[in-house]
């Protein structure tokens, strides 16, 4: 064996390099072996955190796992205001410096809390690309706090396990009275996309939307699945399937996070909409009976309705929630069940921009006819300004649940300008008009006589009527005009003219107090025994109306000739008498007025 002096200069250099590398390797191995002991590794890790880590970061215990010396095991890890982990481990990847290779081959953690409050500061921090840093994750019982000051914005990560690199990862989380399960797959993932099937269920979609910083209306309990693709700057939900309340739901939702305000594009539909499920949006206690899918928001709406004496709910639009999202939503319901108004279909198309909601289309279809409306709610003004216009097109009275007393179809128009953040305030300050007309109406003969208090003929009809085939009498015209000024709706007038009776309604509806003050005059055109001219008033409130006889002074105030003369000019001077000399209404003028009420207003 040659001595060092016998080696050439090149050989000596190589020897020294090898010796240095061997010594370094021994020292590194000795250091790594020492790091398997917590009493040595813990202070080393804490010194490193003090030098290069966040302020105040420390661990209660740390050591390298033997023989896997690339794995650092931690317990009692604490980064003030950022994270706490009871136990965890970090496995380094020695090839992490290469492009496309994450620095950590595995991260595991149990029983901890991570604050994501800073994730709202910038778009990049809100959506870190985890796959640049980690391959495999194994997490359990971790609280993700989006806002430490609001415990309701904490997500409990029950479990998360799998490779985020190839997409084969599963996740189970709870929060905001909701549960989320995600099954990622390599097939659905690729490039910068993590994809898989997600299931979300909970009590109220508004809770989960608010939790993630978006906005949604209150809903009944929901249970939905979808194909989820998590992309840089976007969440794409496709092939949605499931139920909201007792209604099915399908379609797609795209959330674009790269815009200044997250933008939602939703195209959703229901094969069958249970109309009860819409009640909670307007704080109405629909669908709270036995056999219905009911959530906390619906129960609260029912309790509030039962405590109140008013019909119009006192709900307030929280425009601050709309600051969280812009978007465009298109919704179609092919069929509708449990509708008080016998709806057969619904189509809604609306946009949200800032605090302005524009319903470009709200169409409600019946077996015969449609109601179409267009609306704008401007929450940038205080109080909020709402504008609504719409029409009734050949709507069957049967579709309005009036088939027991009337048949045929009606047309109409309506418009309203309202001011207020609360629904009651908006109605109480409304200006606008409502008009309904028809020449294609038949009225239940008994109902017409009873409304006119033509007792004699009503008794005859009652005795002879076949309940399976009731008698209807044609109406020459039905015309209703209501002018609304500062929350007072004034009938101007409402007229029903049949072969047997002429009925006129005048008076007011105070939408602010919901008080009714409507006077009904009716005259029979056919002579009959026991006739009592119908002079009654409709009082009380919208929630609890009452019927009372008119006094003599009120009768004079609603003289039929006077009311109709305001519409069609002077009528015959003779008064309508009880012997059956009631006159026909001037239908042409009444219908013209009803049809032109919107332009006149």
Automatic annotation (TrEMBL):
| Domain spans labelled AsmA | 239-493
Q: Which domain of life is it from?
A: Bacteria
What PANTHER family has UniProt attached to this entry?
Answer: DUF748 DOMAIN-CONTAINING PROTEIN (PTHR30441), PROTEIN ASMA (PTHR30441:SF4)
Q: Name a single GO cellular component.
A: plasma membrane
What name does the UniProt record give this protein? AsmA family protein
Report any one BP term from Gene Ontology: regulation of protein targeting to membrane
């Amino acid at each position: 064996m040659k001595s060092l002096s016998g080696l050439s200069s090149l050989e000596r250099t190589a020897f020294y390099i090898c010796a240095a590398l061997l010594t370094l390797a021994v020292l590194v191995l000795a250091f790594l072996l020492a790091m398997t002991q917590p009493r040595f590794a813990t202070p080393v890790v804490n010194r490193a955190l003090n030098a290069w880590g966040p302020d105040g970061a420390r661990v209660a215990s740390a050591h390298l796992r033997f023989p896997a010396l690339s794995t650092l095991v931690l317990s009692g890890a604490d980064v003030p205001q950022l994270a706490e982990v009871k136990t965890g481990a970090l496995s380094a990847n020695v090839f992490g410096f290469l492009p496309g290779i994450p620095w950590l081959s595995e991260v595991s953690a149990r029983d901890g809390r991570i604050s994501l409050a800073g994730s709202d500061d910038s778009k990049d921090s809100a959506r870190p690309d985890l796959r640049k840093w980690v391959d495999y994750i194994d997490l359990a019982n971790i609280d993700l706090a989006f806002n430490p000051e609001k415990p309701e914005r904490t997500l409990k990560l029950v479990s998360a396990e799998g490779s985020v690199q190839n997409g084969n990862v599963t996740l189970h989380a709870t929060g905001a009275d909701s549960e989320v399960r995600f099954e990622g797959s390599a097939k659905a993932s690729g490039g910068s996309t993590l994809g898989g099937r997600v299931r979300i269920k909970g009590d109220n979609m508004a809770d989960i939307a608010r939790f993630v910083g978006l906005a949604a209306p209150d809903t009944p309990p929901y249970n939905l699945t979808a194909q989820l693709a998590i992309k840089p700057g976007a969440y794409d939900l496709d092939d949605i399937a499931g139920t909201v309340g007792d209604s099915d739901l399908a379609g797609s939702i795209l959330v674009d996070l790269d815009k200044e305000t997250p933008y939602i594009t939703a195209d959703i539909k229901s094969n069958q909409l249970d109309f009860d499920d819409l009640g909670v949006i307007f704080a109405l206690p629909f669908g709270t009976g036995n056999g219905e899918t009911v959530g906390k928001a619906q129960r609260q709406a029912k309790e509030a309705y039962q405590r109140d004496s008013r019909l119009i709910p006192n709900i307030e639009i929280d425009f601050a929630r709309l600051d969280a999202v812009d978007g465009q939503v298109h919704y179609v319901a092919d069929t509708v069940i449990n509708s008080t108004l016998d709806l057969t279909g619904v189509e809604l198309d609306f946009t949200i921009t800032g605090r302005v909601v524009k319903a470009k289309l709200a169409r409600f279809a019946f077996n015969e006819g449609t109601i179409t409306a267009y609306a704008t709610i401007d929450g940038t003004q205080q109080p909020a300004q709402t504008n609504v216009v719409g029409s009734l097109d050949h709507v069957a009275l049967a579709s309005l649940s009036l088939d027991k007393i009337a048949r045929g179809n009606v047309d109409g128009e309506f418009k309203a300008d309202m001011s207020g953040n609360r629904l009651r305030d908006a109605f109480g300050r409304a200006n606008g008009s409502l008009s309904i007309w028809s020449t294609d109406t038949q009225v239940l003969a008994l109902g017409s006589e009873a409304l006119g208090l033509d007792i004699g003929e009503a008794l005859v009809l009652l005795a002879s009527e076949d309940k399976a085939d009731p008698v209807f009498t044609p109406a020459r015209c039905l015309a209703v005009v209501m002018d609304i000024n500062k929350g007072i709706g004034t009938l101007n007038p409402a007229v029903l003219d049949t072969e047997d009776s002429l009925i006129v309604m005048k008076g007011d509806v105070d939408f602010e107090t919901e008080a009714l003050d409507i006077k009904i005059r009716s005259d029979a055109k056919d002579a009959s025994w026991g006739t009592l001219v119908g002079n009654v008033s409709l009082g009380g409130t919208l929630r609890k109306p009452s019927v009372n006889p008119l006094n003599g002074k009120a009768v004079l105030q609603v003289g039929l000739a006077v009311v109709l003369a305001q519409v069609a000019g002077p009528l015959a001077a003779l008064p309508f008498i009880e012997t059956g000399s009631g006159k026909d209404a001037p239908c042409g003028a009444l219908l013209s007025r009803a049809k032109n009420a919107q332009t006149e207003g």
